[in-house]
């Protein structure tokens, strides 16, 4: 009977450990999703600003004084 009790304890510990790992994985996925959402929002703001600047430059027929895009 002692062997059966030990096996049950090991199975219980294993199940608890698996549950902990699943919770950790869920937290990592949640954090990644939040970061993706933040990055998407920032990208949208950046594109909107670029479009507004382009519209303004086209309306006035001038170019921006400082480079808006770092690579240009």
Entry keywords:
single chain, 72 residues, mainly alpha, 82% helix, rod-shaped, Remorin_C, Remorin C-terminal domain-containing protein
Structural notes for this entry:
The protein is 82% helix and 0% strand. The chain is mainly α and 72 residues long. The longest helix has 59 residues, at 2-60. It is rod-shaped and about 90 Å long. The N and C termini lie far apart (76 Å). The mean pLDDT is 88. InterPro entries: Remorin_C. Residues 7-66 form the Remorin C-terminal domain. This is Remorin C-terminal domain-containing protein. Belongs to the remorin family.
Helix content: over 70%
Beta-strand segment tally: 0
- Quaternary state of this entry equals single chain
Q: What distance lies between the first and last C-alpha atoms, to the nearest angstrom?
A: 76 Å
- In terms of structural class, how would the helical and strand content be classed? mainly alpha
Order of helices and strands: H
Mean pLDDT: 88
Q: Major sheet: size, sense and barrel closure?
A: none
Write the layout of secondary structure elements.
Layout: H1 2-60
Domain Remorin C-terminal: 7-66
Protein name: Remorin C-terminal domain-containing protein
Family: Belongs to the remorin family.
Offer a concise description of the structure:
With about 70 residues, the protein is an all-alpha fold.
